[in-house]
Each structure stands twice: as structure tokens, then as C-alpha cells.
Amino acid sequence: MEVFSGRSRGPERHPPAGRSREPHASLLDVRSAAGQVFLLQVVIVVLLVVAAVAGMVLQTARDALQRGRRESVVAAQSFASAPGTAAALRSPDPTAVLQPRAEAARRRTGVDFVVAMNTQGIRYTYPYSREIGKKFVGTIAPALKGRTVVEQAGGPPLPAGRGTDVQAVVPVTDAGGKVVGLVSAGITVKNVAGLWLPQLPIILGSGAAALALAVTGTTLVSRRLRRQTHGLAPEELAQLYEHHDAVLHAVREGVLITAADGRLLLANDEAARLLGLSGDVRGRPVRELGLPEPVMSLLASPEAVTDEVLPAGDRLLSVNKRPTYPKGGRGGSVVTLRDTTELVAVSGRAEVARERLKLLYEAGGAIGTTLDVSRTAQELADVAALQFADLVTVDLLDAVLRGWEPTAEGWRHLRRAAIGGDRRAVPVYPLGEVITFSSRTPQMRTLQEGRGMLEADLRRAQGWREQDPERARKALECGLRSLVTVPLRARNVALGVANFYRTSGSPAFEPEDLAFAEELAVRAAVAIDNARRFTREHAMAVTLQRSLLPRGQPEQDALEVAWRYLPAEAGVGGDWFDVIPLPGARVALVMGDVVGHGLHAAATMGRLRTAVHNFSTLDLPVDEVLGNLDDLVVRMDNEEDAGDAADSHEGEGVTGATCLYAVYDPVAGVCTMARAGHPEPVVVRPDGTVACPGVPASAPLGLGGYPFETAEVPLPEGSQLVLYTDGLVEDRAHDIDIGMERLRRALDGSGGRAPKETCQAVIDALQPSHSCDDIALLVARTRVIPPSRVAEWEVPSDPAVVPEVRARCRETLREWGLEETGFATELILSELVTNAIRYGSPPVGVRLLHGRCLICEVSDGSGTLPRLRRAATTDEGGRGLFLVAHYAQRWGTRYTPRGKVIWTEQVLPDGASAAPALAPVDFLLDQFDLDQFDDPGL
């Protein structure tokens, strides 16, 4: 049977750690004291029941024997004294007479047998006839003497079964008192046991009731014990007490327990030692213990205390006090005492160390936020000036500030890079000033020895004062007190020094401060060196890229150009632009962007820019130029993939590029453009309206096999064509559509601005605070060559018209005021027109353009190109193109949709004079007639 104890109504108390508490524990759990008490009571009840049953059985058996004896005697005497019994014994056949009477008497009296026998003990009657005539089993001698015999004896089987027989033997006498026979009656004890069986339920019921009472009592006791012992077994209670006692007296913290009436209930050994208590204080009032007044007042007070420090003799005790029954009304409190005398001294140093660690942690996040050397040095000065020093200065080598590799030769000349703290309180060298330290100064010594220097009292620091006596005197007057100077070293190379000063209002530096300053300097030096190396790499990349970009504007008449290039903060990219003069006063504008950043992207950009120049020299159409660039990028990618070059530089191949190529013709006022994955240009009309010309978008360079569509856009004079890279309009914070809208707003109303002003306005409006990509911007304002400076006419395909061409050329030059160039121009046109008529195909045309130079163009419908060669002295021809090349500053050929154009450019009189170059040609003019025809194949 299991009985479950209920939950305690008192305050909840948790069992000791390591022992789980079941919500309902069995009373039969022998681990608990209640379970053991319950089992003991059960055993006692069972033993009592068994003893009662045994006693009852014994008593009943005894009573049964006594009763059996009486009944046996009565039955035997009744049968012996019955009339006719004595006579029957003397009859000739006693059995026949007595057997029926004996069985009737047996059944009537309830005995198990009635036996009549003669004086020799031979049975005349028996329940079983086979036993008649046999010797009676029992004692008959006393009965023969007239006495009654009662005994327990065994005999033949009886109807009642086996068991102990109680039999009585009585004599049968005649009238004269003579014993004539014997009668024995008996009863089996087994049958008598039925007398106590009805009492057994009463005994068992009493035992059950006693057991129920035991369960009820045990349940109540179990609940009580469970509240008192928290369900612990006796051995656990013993262990808990032993552990509690051991811990209480071994712990290095004093423990006092007081009652509600102020008596001391418990004091462990540590409390007795700390308070000087004797051994007989238990049970005494607190005020009679002779404790220090602060401690006695605290113990007598009912208020709780947390970590309150109280003096006790020569000790400082940290005291905590809590009530023993926080939710009840029983009162009492527990007090813990801890000796903090040494801890107070140590805690000050620990607090300083904690603050230093915190400062180092903050310095790790505050120093090196940018890759700028000066900014990193200033961050070091600002961090240290907050909690460590009153004034901080950082002096770096010039090489470090410029990104170069530092050397020991520059140690004597350091530049003031940062100042932290109140620089107005103490006179110091200003920012940017070069300081020449003497060999005895702490700064120079720390650089030479590679370790920090501590000057606890600057008034005694002779080397520091000799550096600048007047400045040192003023600094001391202002209260400068001590100095710690440490080297800034990274990779075992000195970068400069950091100087930490304290004034008279702060404690002087100590050796611990020197160690902290060195640790702070080590962390800052790594950040400064990283910034220096980035500065060097960035400067190299920017220098490389700028060397590959245009350094000045080429001479041309078609466009007024301005540009801006801003490299990214993290590293240069592959953005480039170009302005390339073309024959016929045309100008090519290029804007491109190589995917990626770093030196590899810059080098790839240089290769693409050179290729564009070469393709432009061939005067190819804009779509063919982009097609050739696409093939070049594909080949470059294949070279990168085929070799191991990707392992030796940033990136893994070119992976692509974008480009916009435009050719502007100032005579027609038309710009032909095509773009390969590049952002669309923007046109600002002379009236200030902004629009995109609608140049079709084509695939970026490097994909291979895709055609490039072109667009011809008429541009009135004064229009501004704005080309840019995606770094201007695209950012991580917004997409390109928002950037394009911002660009349009920045260009709105820029029709009257100069290209430089437009560039600056766009940069001011769109430049991000932290540029992640290069920005290239090119603004070109168009010019148109007026018709008055263009002369163009067709020439019949007849050599006889060459003189007319000369005459018309002479007249045109006279109108333009260029008579001085007449002879050379007539010679050039004569040779070119003659070759076109003789070896070309109609139609033949002539065009003269008057700009910064004089341009002569002769066109025909043939695709055959002339080539220049040197004729032998015996040749009769072949010197015409040689004369053209000599008299013209430049000459060349370009293809047109209807043939080719041979062009020349001549310097005008206000330019570089060509007169000195005519002398070597005089010999040729003396030998050949200018009207002869040149063979283009000569």
C-alpha cells in the first residue's frame, strides 16, 4: 500500500544540489526516514497479529484438549453406567449387543469412538469392524482398579482422520462393584480445532485496523518529516550535517546566526577569529559579547545589509546580512563576514588594471578606423588623452607619412603628426612641423634603443630640456610634470615616437604606466604601418593609372573638353577616358571601365587605351573599333586562363570591360556613338535642357561575337556631351536609376556653363563621402566649323583640270588670308588630285578646311591606297607623295562608305614654320616638273 505525502504549506525549500525531489514520494521508500518508520510499524503489526493468532491457537488447542478429556470421560462413563452394559459384557456374544449401542452413543455424544472391552483389553466394539477383537491401545491398568484413566494415545484409524486422540478409560462394574469390563471413549483433537476458527477474522480485522492506524500515523509523521528533512534519508541527513559542520568551520568566511530576541545561535570558527569571540558565546545576547560598536549595531538591527564594510579592530570586514525566514514571522538573521583588509589595497590596483584593459580594448576599435596615416596617428593621440595622459603628441618619419619605407637615417628629423589633449595649456610644436631631436633627448634614445623611456620628473630631465630650453621652461611653468615616450615599431622597423605627458594636476607616471604605453604603442604602430603600406600601394596604383590617362588636352578645334578623375578610397580601378584628334578636324571621345580594382585593372586599362589609339589611327568606324576591342579583351582573357598569371596579381583575368566610343564631326555637327555595356551619355542642349541621346545598348566587351549598334546624334554648337563611368551614378546605397536622376538634376540648366564648371557641379552633387569605385567624368562642348572656312568642290576625272584646281585653291587661300601657304598647298593638291584622277575612280572631290591648321582632303571612289617609297635617282617618277609628306605636317588615308580620302595637315604661318624644311626639296624641284603625275605604286 502506498500513501503519498502532500506538499508543505510552509515556504518552499529546495533539496540540496545533486538530489532531485519527487513531487510524490512512496511511504515504502526505505531511503526516507518516514518510509523506514512505516516499514517498522508494519513489521510490528504483523508480529503482533502472528503472536495473537499463535496464542489463540495454543489456548484453543489447550481448551480443546481439556474439553475433549471431559467429553471423553462423560461419554465413557455414560456408556459404562448404561443399563445392560455390564450384562452384555458377560453375554456370550458381547459384540452383537454392544456394537450397535456403542455406535449410537458415539453419534449421539459427538465423540470419535466408543470402545467396550473385557478386562484383558480385547475390543468388543469399534467404528471399524475389522478392529474388533484386537488389543486396545492405551493404559487400562488403573481402570481395572476402579479409577478413570484419561490419556492421549494413538490407535487404529478413526472416521475423523488422523490426529491426536484424547481417550478416557473407565471401568464397568456389576452390582457387587466388581470390574467386569472397560469402556473407552475418545475424541480427535483435530476436530476440536474448529472451535477457534471463528475467532480468526476478529484477530485479522484487529490487525488490519492497527495497520491502518499505523499508515495514517505514518502519513502524518511522513509529512512532518518531509518538511523537516526535505525528503532526505537518515544517512543523507547524517552526511548533510557532517558536510554542513565541516564547511561551516572550514570556510574562510565568518558566519553568525542570531535569534529574533538578539541571542547568538551560531558562530563558526572564522567568525570567532575575526571578532575575537570566546568558545561559550552560544545562546548569549549579542550586546553582551563585547563586539565593536559598528558590528554590534548591525547585528542588533533588523535591516538587511549588502557588502557593507565595517571596521573591527585593525581589520576591515565586508558584511552581508539577511533574515533567516524572509517570508515568515519567526525573526532571526544570518550574517556573513569577510576580511577585506588586503583586498582593499589590491582592489585599487585591480581597478587601475581593469581601466587600462578597457582602454586597450577601446583603443583596438578606435585606432586604425581608416587607412590614413595622419588620421591613425590622431586617433592614437585622442584615445590616450582621454584616460591615460593629459597631453599626447605623435611624431612620425616623413617617409611614413608619404607611404615610403622608413629608414634609420630619418630618425633625427620627425614631423609632428598628431596632438591630443589640451594643446593650449602647454606650448608644443605645431602640427606639420619638422622636429630635429638631439641624441640625448628621450625621443632619440627610445628610437635608438627600441624601448620606452620614463621621465618621472621633467625638471630633472636634462636631455629633454636641452632640446629646446626656452620651450621646456615655458612648459614646466605651465605645469608639465612627467613624460613617457615609446617607439612606434612595426615589423621591427621604427616609424616614429609617441609622447605621453602629465601635468601637475595628475599623478606622475610610474613603471606600470610605461608598460601600458608600450602596449598601446604596439597596437597603434601596426595600424599606422598598415596605413603607410596602403598609402604606398594606393599611391603606386594611382600613379600608374594617372600615367596611363591623358595628361593634357590635345590640340583640336572640334570640342572644348574638361574632365575629372577620382580614384576609389580602397584602390584604383580600371576607369579611363580619352580625347583623340582624327583627320578632317574630327575628334574621338572614349570612356571605358575595366571590371575589377587594383594594379591589374589599371594595367589592363592601359592596354585597352593603347589599343583604342591604334584603332583610331586606322580611322575605323565606331562599331568596328568596339568590335576590335571586344576581340582584344577575349584574347586577354584567354591568355589569363591559359597561363599562371592569375596567381601573381589581383583578380583572375579581365572578365570584361565596358566602353563608349564616339566620333564628333565639327563640319556636319554630328556625333556617331556606340556603347558596349557602358552607361548612356547625357546631352545638355544650349538652352540647358538635359536628355539622353538614345544610343543603343550593346553587350560588354569580352563576351565575343555580339554586334555593336551605332547612333548618329546631331549636336548643335554649344551642346555639352557628358560621358561618365558607373562610379558616378551607382552606389551601394542606391541603384543606377536614382543616380541618373541626380545626374540630370545636377546638369539641369548647365547650357551656359563652361565644361570645367559643369564637371565641378556634377562632382559636388554626386561625389559620395566614401567612394568604393573610381569616378571618371568627361564633358565636351561642341564647336562647329563655319561654312566660310570650308571649301569643297568636285573635280572632273580629267588631268587637264589640275591647273583649275590650283587656281581655285589659290583663290580660296587668298580669301582666308593664307597666301603664304599657297605654294605648298597647290603642290599638295596637284599631286593628290593627279593621283586620284589617274589611278582612282570617280567621283573625285576636294575639300579645304581652315582651322588651327589647313586641312586638304582629296576623295575618290577607289579603295586602293597609295604608299610612300623612296625613288632612285634614275627614276622618272615616284616622288610626288614624297613631296606631299615633306610639305605637310601629317598626311594619311581613311576609308569612307564610297571610297577613300587622302588628307594632309599643314601648319599655318602663326604656328611652327615649315620654311627651313623646304631647302632639302629644292634639288628635287629643279629636276622634276610639278605637273607630272605620280604613280601610286612607285
Automatic annotation (TrEMBL):
The yes or no answer to whether the keyword Membrane is present is: yes
Q: Know the name of this protein?
A: Histidine kinase
What's in the keyword line of the UniProt record? Answer: ATP-binding, Cell membrane, Hydrolase, Kinase, Membrane, Nucleotide-binding, Phosphoprotein, Transferase, Transmembrane, Transmembrane helix, Two-component regulatory system
Domain PAS residues, every copy: 240-278
Q: Which GO terms describe its biological process?
A: phosphorelay signal transduction system
Please name the CDD domains in this protein's record. Answer: HATPase_RsbW-like (cd16936), PAS (cd00130)
Q: Which Gene Ontology terms of cellular component type are present?
A: plasma membrane
A single MF term (Gene Ontology): phosphatase activity
Q: Where are the transmembrane segments?
A: 38-61, 200-221
Q: Name one Pfam family in it.
A: HATPase_c_2
Q: What spans are recorded as compositionally biased (Basic and acidic residues)?
A: 9-24
Compartment list = Cell membrane
Q: How does it sit in the membrane?
A: Multi-pass membrane protein
Q: What is its main location?
A: membrane
Ranges for the region named Disordered are 1-24
